[in-house]
Amino acid sequence: MRKIILALGVVALITTGCNLEQDPVAVQSSEAGKPAGKNSGSARSKSFPIELTAKRAHASKSVLSDGGALSCVKVTVTNQTKKQLEVNPLYFSITDTHSTKHDSSSALGDYEDQIATTSLAPHEKATGLVCAKGSFRPKTVAMTNTLFSEAARAQVAS
């Protein structure tokens, strides 16, 4: 019994020193292929494996809509990797100007032209709308991967 407790203590000591958090994903500017921020005008722009661009948009409500307010962005996802990229409307979230995160699943089926569920081959693009319920001004849009860790984030252009 003493050996088990000692072993668990060693494992606990080792794992507390591990940093399991990932580095945050860089925010892409509203201009394709450039990072956001003060250095976005530099000659050497950063390349992103998943290029994500977003612009504020208005959606046409579908027959399933309950008539509530929707805040939307038109996104373009470009696969710049050498592997297939899964795209799904459930993989997106919108953060407003007050830093409140809005899940896109809240408005699924409420509007037309939502981004399609698809697999993108290398260098393919997908474009469509991502909306969330409520009336707010979108600031950034984020996309997760199939494991629901953030894969790309972009500023929303006006």
UniProtKB/TrEMBL annotation:
This is DUF4352 domain-containing protein. Residues 65-129 form the DUF4352 domain. Pfam families: DUF4352. Keywords: Signal. Residues 28-47 are annotated as: Disordered. It comes from the Bacteria. PROSITE patterns: PROKAR_LIPOPROTEIN. InterPro entries: DUF4352 (IPR029051), Immunoprotect_excell_Ig-like (IPR029050).
